[in-house]
Amino acid sequence: MSPRSPLKPHEIVERALELSTADGCVVIADEHSSANLRWARNALTTNGVTRGRTLTVIATVDGAEGTASGVVSRSAVTADELEPLVRAAEAAARGAGPAEDAQPLVTGVPVSAHFTEAPAETSSEVFAGFAPALGEAFARARSGGRELYGFAHHELTSTYLGTSTGLRLRHDQPGGTLEMNAKSPAASGGHERSAWAGRATADFADVDPAALDDELARRLGWAERRVELPAGRYETLLPPTAVADLLIYQIWSAAARDAAEGRTVFSRQGGGTRVGDTLARLPLSLRSDPREPGLEYAPFLVAHASGDTQSVFDNGLPVGATQWMREGRLEHLVTTRHSAGLTGLPVAPAAGNLILDGGGERSLEEMAAATERGLLLTCLWYIREVDPATLLLTGLTRDGVYLVEDGEVVGEVNNFRFNESPVDLLSRATEAGRTEQTLPREWSDYFTLAAMPALRVPDFNMSSVSQGV
Questions:
Q1: Per residue in 365-415, pLDDT tens?
Q2: Exposed end of the chain (fewer CB within 10 Å): N or C?
Q3: In whole angstroms, what separates CA 4 from the centre of its chain?
Q4: Which of 405, 462, 452 is CA-nearest to residue 432?
Q5: Phi and psi dihedrals of 86, rounded to 5?
Q6: In this structure, which topology does domain 9-220 adopt according to CATH?
Q7: What is the pTM of this model?
Q8: Can you give the residue ranges of every domain in the chain?
Q9: What CA–CA distance (Å, rounded) separates 148 from 104?
């Protein structure tokens, strides 16, 4: 075959492995496609479809002092650019010192049956049922005096992973997000109102724009009355999206090695980790499972680079279900094969999804109806870490904080800055609602596969008033 002939993804992987002169080689070909819709003021504004390819070559070189690795990633790689890419990875490996996380490359994983098939692709057809329903929602909003803004995004990535040890693995990952804002112009003497709703979806077949518009209209109605409240600790209902954003940051901070070295909230005083400790009074269980219906992800590890919670040497390692917390008790921290050896903990690859269950059956609305006085949040944003030793986070509320009195929403209150640790928050939660799939608003660019319940926290720390909307 001519070096300038177009190559299929699996052929690119095979060719790169053939070109390798390193002691070990891992090749990852990611074929990306995406489709999107955007709208403003009850009308579509833009739409588009994109395609792309990213190739990552990982070379390993055995030396007298240990094994070194070199990683090079490039986009839109053609056949005649393949050899320079492989050589660049090999040069990076030979110029690097021994890799601390070096392990033998993974072996013995069965070949994916569809490894040689063409990549899966999304297109504007994914919106075939959604777009007309969105148009109907525009008409309803217009007649109700509301303006809808937002976007829908769908992507599909086919990942082909091959190694010099014989692995040939393939996974297709779909992902879709929908975010919608409704705005109501200020009436005479009043204030402009805004509300947000979001959904995560694999294919948009389960998204109902009319239901979202109903939800937004209800929240705009709540905001007709404005109540100013001071900073302080309030009984607060955290919706599933807010719980997801907090627990995603928690799992990102759950590296076993960092904990064993005394640097995180999961470090045990006096040495070691807090695995085995009870973190929550409620029977809360947090888990990840690549085969969870509707939240599937690759059942093998794909690592484009090494870091605190992943290692390029672990590429292709089988991934199963992991119970991070079981009925309030910490069961696992994130480990690579290397950090598992250092800490004496089991291998537990980084989470591709997160499911929290507390055994509750009530919806967020039912929890609000059982609230004497408290705050109902819409979502959180601008979340940042303050103290890694306690995992203290700060951030802002956004697009609607509502006051609940005697089971009824009586008005919208001002936004707040909060200061909370998700680990401490779990220990204080007094009720968990029904677990449901949700879209994390803050981290939706990085992590969308989540199912969470609403949580009731009796003393959520609203540290100061925010002027944000």
A1: 999 999 999 999 999 999 999 999 999 999 999 999 999 999 999 999 999
A2: N
A3: 38
A4: 452
A5: -60, -45
A6: PmbA/TldD fold (3.30.2290)
A7: 0.95
A8: 9-220, 225-469
A9: 54
